[in-house]
Each structure stands twice: as C-alpha cells, then as structure tokens.
Amino acid sequence: MSATTNFSEYARRIKASDREAFADLFRQLREPLIRYVLHIVRDDMIAHDLIQDSFVSLWKLRESLDPGKSLKAYMYQIARNRAMRHLRDERTHESKHEIIRQQSSKEIPVEEWPDASIESASLQKKLKLWLASLPERQREALELSRYQGLSHKEIADVMDISPRTVNTHITLAIKNLQRNIQAAEPALFQI
Amino acid sequence: MKSREHNSLPEELLQGFENGSSDSVEKARRVWELLGTTQDDPLKVPSTEQALQELESVLTDQPHLKKGRADDRMPVRKEKVVLLRRSVFSFVAACSVLLIGVMGFLSLPVTHSTFAGERMAVSLPDGSEVYLNNESSVKYTRGFRQWNGFKTSTRIVELDGEAFLTVAEDGRPFKVKTFNAEVTVLGTGFNVRAYSQDQDRETRITLDHGSVQVDIGGVSTERAVVLNKKGQEAVVKNASVEKSNIIEEGGSLEWVTAWRSSGFVAMGLSLDGVINQIERFYDTDIVVSDGLPQNPTDLIYTQNAPSIEELLTDFCISEGCRFQETASGYHLLPTE
Hints:
Structural class of chain B: alpha+beta
CATH topology of one domain in chain B: Jelly Rolls
Mean pLDDT of chain A: 81
Number of strands of chain A: 0
Oligomer: heterodimer
Low-confidence stretches of chain A: 105-114
CATH class of one domain in chain B: Mainly Beta
Strand content of chain A: under 5%
Radius of gyration of chain A: 19 Å
CATH superfamily of the largest domain in chain A: RNA polymerase sigma factor, region 2, helix turn helix motif
Number of helices of chain B: 8
CATH architecture of one domain in chain B: Sandwich
CATH architecture of the largest domain in chain A: Orthogonal Bundle
Order of helices and strands of chain B: HHHHHEEEEEEEEEEEEEHEHEEHEE
Helix content of chain B: 25-40%
Number of domains of chain A: 2
Largest sheet of chain B: 13 strands, mixed
Distance between the termini of chain A: 32 Å
Low-confidence stretches of chain B: 62-79
Distance between the termini of chain B: 78 Å
Strand content of chain B: 25-35%
Radius of gyration of chain B: 30 Å
CATH topology of the largest domain in chain A: Rna Polymerase Sigma Factor, Chain: A
Helix content of chain A: over 70%
Largest sheet of chain A: none
Mean pLDDT of chain B: 78
Number of strands of chain B: 18
Structural class of chain A: mainly alpha
Order of helices and strands of chain A: HHHHHHHHHH
Shape of chain B: extended
C-alpha cells in the first residue's frame, strides 16, 4: 500500500510546513476532489473555488494534522463540508423560484433518455446515466470507493456514517447497476 | 483523471454479497470492472499548475495594499515629469520600506504560548515537535533562518514553562534556552520544566531518548552535564547544574511526562510548587492559609486527571486540610 504510506508521509511533512509536500498533494488530489464536489455543486468553477479554499484551510490547519489519520479522507471531508455549506448558502440566498429553475436545468434532463436514445448510446454513456440515477448516498459511496480509491473506513469518515452503512450503500448501488446492465446487455453476465 | 488502479472489488465489500451465491459476487465483479471503463468529461477549470500558483500566492502574500495604492494614483497623471519623478522616488521608497518590512518580519521571532488549563503541540520549521504544557511559551526565529534567508547555524528555542521536545536531526545543533539554563541536543526526546515564576526557580531536564548536554545559561560550558540514559535528570538551580540518578523507567519518567497524556503529577515539590501547578492546570486561583505542611506528598494521576474538586479532596485527605470554593477559585485551610 504505497499510496497510503505516501499520504501519512505528506501529513507529517505538511504538518512541518513543507510547501513541496503541500504542492505534491495538491497535484495528486485536486482533480479527483473537484470531480467529487462537482456532483454536489454541479458547476466546474464553483468546484474549483471550493477545492482552492479547501487547500488554503488545510495549510492553515496544518499544525493540528494527525499523521496517524488518513489525510486523504480528511481532504475529502473538508471538500464535502464546503460543498454542502455552499449549497446551503445558495439555497438561503436564492428565491424558491430560482432553485426550482436551476435544479431542473442542472439535473440530467429526463426527456433526454427515453428508451430509444439509451439503446443507441454506448455502454459507457449508459453506465454514467445509471450512476447518476442512483440514490444520492449510494452513488456517493460507490464513487468514493470505485473512482477515488478510498477505503470503507475513509468513506465512513467522509460521509459521517458507519463503515457498515458504507458497505450497504455500495452493495445496493452495485446491485442496482447490475440490474440495469443485465436488462440492457444480458450477454455481459452469461458466465 | 480518475484512478483506475483499484480494479478489483474491495475485500471489505465481499461481505455484502456473501449471503448470495458466488455467482452474485462474480456479477458484482463484472459491474465493478465495467465501471472502470467510463470516461470523465473534461473539466472547465484552470489547469492544476495555474491553480497551484494561484494558491501559492494566496498563501504567501497579503499585500493587496500595494496594488490598491497604484490604482489610486492612476487618475492624477497630468503634471507628467514632476509626478513621474515623484512616483519613481516614491516607488523606490515604497520598495525599500517593503523590503525592510519583509526583512523585519522575517527576523521577528515566532512565539507560541499556552494559557493556564491549556496544552498545545507546536511543529518547528525543521520538523521537530514541541508539546507545551500549561502557561508555557516557546520562541524561535522564523524558519530557523536569519534575516537574509540563510539558515542559522544553531536552532535555538527559548522556553518559559514546561515542554516535551522531540528533536529532528538536521545537522545543526538544537538548543533550548531557559531563564537560567541551556540544553544542547542532537536528535532526541526530553522534557524541560522551567517555570521562571515559581518559587523554586529551577530548570529540570528529564531525558527520554537520545542525549542532551545541559549548561548554565549565559556562562561557559565548563560545568556542563551530559544526559545520555533514559530517565536521567539534570536540575539547574542557583547557577549550578546537578545530575541526579536515573529515575526509574516506567515509574518516575512516566510521571514526569504524564502531562502529555492529560495527567497531573506534582512530584517532590514544595507546597507552593504544588499549588502553582494546580492553578496552572485547572486555570484557577488558590489561597492557602498558614498551617499546611510545607512538603506535601506527591500527587500522581498518570492519565486523565480528575476534576479539581476530586483532586483537592485527595490532597486534603493526605495533608489534613479542607477547602472552600471562593469567587475566583478555592481556599485551603488546615483542619482544626
């Protein structure tokens, strides 16, 4: 597990105000973090700003870092909290009208995927649509595990739920996807 | 780019499918693999290096002031020559002020302090760690560098109060100065206790690992003492150093550093010393009436000290006293 030892090494060096380690960590985690919060805020530039802020606060909090804890989970946690706060602020500032308008335009338009077009789309495209249509928490847990490479313990910390619940979310997500895939491409599951 | 290296189903997940047949695990594996084939949409954000630069500049400089002033000057550009000369002059002046300011800032020492009832971990620029006990402070030069940016030849930390230090090896000697002593180190962990306001006016150094040399502050190193065994202690008092025997490992050494695990230990102290320590730990005021024994027994709670009332109760049982709560703390009286 060279990746995890790397992160605790980073934590130790950043704690000691090592700017190079900070830059390395930024290069490694920035894009995955942007992609992660993008699902919450649904705007590239806002996601970018949130991650910049997250790293600023990491630097400010560096002295209190605990190298024994997962730095990666910690960063996802900071990013998630900021994204959630952003969403909350946005909601309180905007009129209800705005929210309804924005949400309907930001979410994947339902009309775009009637059965006909989904038939013609590539399996990869379909996978993404199915992913997007999973219940929010199932999708988030699966995403963190599959695409961000976090352990269940780390995901539990980030989402503030128990590792058992993480397991349940991911299991259900996979079963859901499998049902969808099997309906569309039964050949893929013939063993 | 998504990380694709996690191509096999995580071990932890298998439990979720265990009740099902091996067939269902196989299907889950298939889904997991398929998920790895999706493509990310390109992000419409600045490049990582650009973002990093932006971040670095946010973290390094605060002077937006300079920019603001230049903007203010923009509309007054009519009397060209004079103004230009003046502006060149003021630019140079501003630059030198800024330079002096930056140099001044860099040469300012950094101080970290704790209040009574508070403890704090401080990371030094060389990777060494200082864990500060109640009402203590450390002071060191910024980055262990001189004003011109060069590294200082010695890492010097000034301490008032108590701290446990874990010193990182970086080739330069590491020194801890207290009001009356100097401790020189190379890669080691040790406890220094030097409350200059306490009546006993002593610096007590206890070694955990590595080695340290203890000198009397401000004078030659002739009477220096070297500690190189776990549990050895040196006490600097009245301009002399004394090396005590090795205190038992696991016993007293653990007690000396008990404060690091929120313990409370007052060992071998005068009544005054014990009271000072209680005041520091609980951030309270204690008034003591005459008639209490001057050399009380030790108070030892190696982990998670009790509430102040419990502690005072324990103390009073052994010392024969009672305590009353006052507006700002407690009053200790001898039992009649």
